[in-house]
Amino acid sequence: MRKLAIIAIAAGVLLAFTKSPNAQSSTYDLVLRNGRLVDGSGGPWYRADIAIRGDAIVKIAASITDPAARVIDVQGQVIAPGFIDIHTHSRSGIFQTPTAENYVRQGVTTLIEGPDGSSPVPLKPFFEKLEALPKSVNIGSFIGQGAVRSAIIGNANRQPTPEELEKMRALVDQGMKDGAFGLSSGLFYVPGTFTPTDEVIELARVAARFGGIYISHMRDEAAGVVDSVKETIAIGERGGLPTQVTHHKIIGPANWGRSTDTLRLIDEARGRGVDATIDQYPYTASSTSIQAALLPAWAQEGGRAETQKRLADPGTRARIKAETIRIIKNERGGGDPKNIVIAGCGWDATLAGKNLADVVRLRGMEPTIENAAEAALWIVERGGCSGIFHAINEADLERILKHQATMIGSDGEIPIFGQAHPHPRSYGTFARVLAVYVRERHTITLEDAVRKMSSFPAQRLGLQDRGLLRAGMKADIAVFDPARVRDAATFERPHQYAEGVLVVIVNGQIVFERGAMTALRPGKVLYKRP
Ligand SMILES: [Zn+2]
User: Fold this and answer.
1) What are the angstrom distances between the C-alpha of 527 and each of 73, 87, 213, 315, 463?
2) Taking the model in full, what pTM does it have?
3) Ligand 1 centroid vs 170 CA: distance in angstroms?
4) 503 by DSSP, 3-state: which?
5) In a 3-state reduction of DSSP, which class is residue 385?
6) What's CA 513's distance to the chain center, in Å?
7) Ligand 1 (ion): which residues have CB within 5 A?
8) pLDDT tens, 113-145?
């Protein structure tokens, strides 16, 4: 042992000397000592030190005593790979808040953009802007099927011509060449909802050629959820690429319990060799625009002006309203206008945090479901709001979380601290899994939770040098106190950072310690490389 240590020191000195005659005598830039390593593999934690040089982990051993520019004794706290969030809406927020502090304080070191069929098209200018931006975290993107369709045929409900389909293929091809991790879809949204399965498969085949994956916000997460999972599996199977149900949930009390069926479908698909997986956020409420959630798709065809025209026509308005009533009763409203909360409105900031029953009362009416539907249409006419919808149950959530093929993704954003009333998932997702579903409820183990947040999404994205604590991997690391880590953000008070994460390292540099962001911005743009 003693002899080995001397050799290691000598080698280190030699290396430092070779680089520059004035180099310091440190072998390592940073050593984390006395950690409980939860290494991302899912295997049981073990006690070790980690040495970092440059942007990489260079050694993991029971005891590392070679000289280091800096040593942090983590005193038995957990050292884990930095968390990788495979589903984020961070593309505007990253430019306003390049620290992504809401994510870093949960231990997140990589954000993936372009989910739900929505990405910049083309991706290259977006990547160039990101390259020029000093940022605390790594960021990458999918290419979005909805955005591609919109660029070629707009928001119309029709099939593409052969020429249009060829143009869409070319845009996906370009997106993949630019470095996208795969094709995302949002078949629930306009214009994704107007896309036949075969058209998605045509585009998925393009992503498949580059080794990309398909990830989908499915057509229907309520009454049609089982068929939607079948469709997602079919797209992977016939498209010839890995396929993922994103933010898997079961919406509406009438549909609760169907995760038993959806998970069985995933198991059967995997059993016959289809690489189908899931991601999920740990909350029983979803968040999207009021319009997308509460209006039927046909009412949204063609864009905002067309929607307004339909709402202005009394007969059409009545048909829309009937659908909205049904959705509030059976789907996103969970049967009660109180379950729908306004997250933010550009045209009236005071509505944020109020539920739809409050809005109805403000307008001098009784909070019936019918009046709530009327209020929803009024909101859409005024310019729309984002909303939070409490219509998921805990049993489905836990059943999905326990599944081996489920990873964690926030579906969150980088909010402006204190502004509007966002879903707490942006501030709490990863810490909440560790606090509520590991420590309090024992739904999954600590090791499995970390796997679902690190090596599993890394594998899915093809990030071969991240997501595990191993010598040679990039040094993206989160140190946290397993007894104290928790989400503080609530639906009532969302703007609260997670607690219990102690140190966050991105590409070997410390971006967060002692309760504050550092001045370092080591985040990289990540690209899919074949
Ligand atoms: Zn989504």
Assistant:
1) 34, 15, 13, 50, 9
2) 0.93
3) 25
4) strand
5) coil
6) 24
7) 116, 217
8) 999 999 999 999 999 999 999 999 999 999 999
